[in-house]
Automatic annotation (TrEMBL):
GO terms for cellular component: chloroplast thylakoid membrane; proton-transporting ATP synthase complex. HAMAP family: ATP_synth_b_bprime. It comes from Dracaena fragrans. Belongs to the ATPase B chain family. This is ATP synthase subunit b, chloroplastic. The gene is atpF. Keywords: ATP synthesis, CF(0), Chloroplast, Coiled coil, Hydrogen ion transport, Ion transport, Membrane, Plastid, Thylakoid, Transmembrane, Transmembrane helix, Transport. The lineage of its organism: Eukaryota, Viridiplantae, Streptophyta, Embryophyta, Tracheophyta.
Length: 182
């Protein structure tokens, strides 16, 4: 409790100060100042951060939905390729006598082309998701920093009102004892 009392304005710290003085012990006052600033930042930035995260969540869900549509298209393409493969296999039975090796090459090419297309679509989806996530993280960081800075400046400006300023000037005049004081 003594440390907390010593952290605030000390009334008897300077003998010439009379009824006003400052605590110049930086190590005692910094934790209090930091805790007040952090408390204000958390209190003021919580709603903004939640809104930003909700908006980002909607964008990510939209991106995932688009990726799912791409995946469905790839699956449809794969089904068409499989249907075509079944057709080619039926033709292979018919043409087995005429050139089994040619049909096997066409089958392998078709499977390779389909699997590479599917791989490319999957890679594109993963790259898009990663890019969107990084962009969202960077946007949220930047906006949180801006909101925190604005909140801290607003708090500082609101603490320095004219009444406090006039009381400080009056106390300093009283300490110095000007010529008009008798």
């Amino acid at each position: 409790m003594k440390n907390v009392n010593d952290s605030f304005v000390s009334l008897g710290h300077w003998p010439s100060a009379g009824s006003f003085g400052f605590n110049t012990d930086i190590l005692a006052t910094n934790p209090i100042n930091l805790s007040v600033v952090l408390g204000v930042l958390i209190f003021l930035g919580k709603g903004v951060l939640n809104d930003l995260l909700d908006n980002r969540k909607q964008r990510i869900l939209s991106t995932i939905q688009n990726s799912e549509e791409l995946r469905r298209g790839a699956i449809e393409q794969l089904e068409r390729a499989r249907a075509h493969l079944r057709k080619v296999e039926m033709e292979a039975d018919e043409y087995r006598m005429n050139g089994y090796s040619e049909i096997e090459r066409e089958k392998a090419n078709l499977i390779n082309a389909t699997s590479s297309s599917l791989e490319q679509l999957e890679n594109y989806k993963n790259e898009t998701l990663h890019f969107e996530q990084q962009r969202a993280i960077n946007q949220v960081r930047q906006q949180v920093f801006q909101q925190a800075l604005q909140g801290a400046l607003g708090t500082l400006n609101s603490c320095l009102n004219s009444e406090l300023h006039l009381r400080t000037i009056s106390a300093n005049i009283g300490i110095l004892g000007g010529p008009w004081k008798k």
